[in-house]
Amino acid sequence: GGATTLYDGFLAAEFLRQDDPDSFDLLASTPIDFSSYSSGLHYRCEAQVISLDKTGTVCGVRWTDRTIDRPDVPVDLIEPIYKALYSFSKALFRPEAEYRYRLNPGEAHIFDNQRVLHGRTAFDTSTGSRHLRQAAIDRDEFHSTLRVVATRLGESVADLAYSSGAFS
């Protein structure tokens, strides 16, 4: 046990766009409440599950089954929202969207939390111990640093492609 599982949220969103366009459109246009309260933390966000850039390209996916609140939407959207969330979860767990591997001691993986969704399989503590550390980088700060370094290296910032982030 204890394998790391990664899911390509962009690929799952494209599966949904192809297989259930109404659900895709709903998740890309309707804000959902996400919240978590524990151990002195209080996270709250209202956002679409699927974020699109101005060309309609998927540029972000927000998904965590532990923090999705009940939908605060008009009554006529409640059933379609739940159907859309279910359809997206089915797309997300398609084998083509999953990558599973085991991290060895001293190894790390780095990923974009708004593209790659992650988890771990169950771990049997009688077989040993597991110690995980997590670090986070603010997406806009990362993109800012990328532009600063590109400018220092004489590269055109306009030529850089971002999946999302602050452009100005």
Description:
The structure is a single chain. The chain has 168 residues and is an alpha+beta fold. It has helices spanning 9-19, 21-29, 75-92, 139-152, and strands at 4-8, 32-38, 41-47, 50-52, 58-61, 98-101, 116-120. The chain has a three-stranded antiparallel β-sheet. Strands 2-3 form a two-stranded antiparallel sheet. It has a two-stranded antiparallel ribbon with strand order 4-5. The radius of gyration is 18 Å and the shape is globular. Residues 164-168 have low confidence and may be disordered.
Notable features of this structure?
4 helices; 7 strands; globular
The fraction of residues assigned to DSSP E strands is 15-25%
Structural class: alpha+beta
User: Count the helices. How many?
Assistant: 4
Mean pLDDT: 84
User: From the alpha-carbon coordinates, what is the Rg to the nearest angstrom?
Assistant: 18 Å
H/E series: EHHEEEEHEEH
Net shape? globular
Short description:
Helix content is 31%, strand content 21%.
What is the topological layout?
Layout: E1 4-8, H1 9-19, H2 21-29, E2 32-38, E3 41-47, E4 50-52, E5 58-61, H3 75-92, E6 98-101, E7 116-120, H4 139-152
Antiparallel strand pairs: 1-6, 1-7, 2-3, 4-5
